[in-house]
Amino acid sequence: MSSKDNRLGLLGWAFGGWYGPERYAFTLQRITGLSILLYLVMHVFVTAPRLWGHGAWESIMSQVDNPLFKLGEYALFCAVAIHAMNGLRLILSELGFALPHPEPPEYPYPTCLDKQRPLFYAFMALAMVAVLMGGVDTLKDIVHIIEK
């Protein structure tokens, strides 16, 4: 079997098979990071007044009260919340807070999953709380726009 037979391509990048939550957290970090980067680039081009002129600026800003725009803002907020919480988890892991104490290598070998998985679940729960709280505000904004 050559190395070419085991290439999963983009599907392997997103869904690695029988991996644990850590692999999917890694994929989620990639996806949210790339979406935030895409938004940043788009934001710079849309809000650059020298590129578009004052009339184009006014027409773009008139779309801010559109419910679809509010949903887009909410999607960005969700990506930032998840990316930030997962990033904090990674920082704590890299600093050693999610690693077991050093022990002699005796079977069964200790793993860091006993500390890292609960940390992952805790930070994703915090992200979901932030997402839900932001969703309530977004829903209020959308209802306010529709009532106008």
What does this structure look like?
The chain has 148 residues and is an all-alpha fold. It contains 5 helices and no strands.
Could you write a compact summary of the structure shown?
With 148 residues, the protein is mostly helical.
Properties at a glance:
148 residues; mainly alpha; 3 helical TM bundles of succinate and fumarate reductases; 73% helix; elongated
Show the helix and strand layout.
Layout: H1 9-14, H2 21-46, H3 49-61, H4 67-94, H5 113-147
Any idea what the radius of gyration is? 21 Å
CATH class: Mainly Alpha
Proportion of β residues? under 5%
Biggest sheet details: none
Proportion in helices: over 70%
Number of helices: 5
What is the 3D form?
A: elongated
How many domain regions?
Answer: 1
CATH architecture field: Up-down Bundle
Tell me the series of helices and strands, N- to C-terminal.
HHHHH
Going by helix content, strand content and strand pairing, the class is: mainly alpha
Question: What would the average pLDDT be, to the nearest integer?
Answer: 84
CATH level-3 fold name = 3 helical TM bundles of succinate and fumarate reductases
Alpha carbon gap, first and last residue? 65 Å
Q: Work out the number of β strands.
A: 0
